[in-house]
Design a protein that fits this description.
7 strands; 160 residues; 34% helix; three-stranded antiparallel β-sheet; two-stranded antiparallel ribbon; globular; alpha+beta
Amino acid sequence: MPSPADEAMLTGLVGELSGRFGTPFFAPHLTLQGDTELPPAALERAAAAAAETVPAFSEAVAMVEGSEAFFRSFYARFAVSPPLARLKRALDPEGLDSFMPHVSLLYGPVEAPAKAAAIAEVQARLAGRMIHFDRIGIVTSGQDIAIADWRLVTSVELRS
């Protein structure tokens, strides 16, 4: 999860894009592990163990991109840095090879020319900007849960 200041900036951007394109609003985040059947207590233990191995860190936005995928329609992409790789390995080792760290900024389909123009605008604003990550969040979310119903269950601070 981004630090409070970066979370506020990214939340504002998600709100701006959501309003502009009529797409769902959501809390910005960088997914380390997707849908899982693990119970919340086990997830919290795993997140706490992973958080002990990585101090809070900052990463530069490498690029703002888009795709046709609903949940990757428009996003800020990050490099697979050592802290992100360590967290991914701890929480979802099978997914490490395909890991593409990103913070989505818009979910859902948008007309291609309008989306391309918005991506260019946001790229100019965010490219190279450092985003500070300071905690792991556990969220009730998924493809079978309405985005409006996604909720942060708990968060675990990364090592200081």
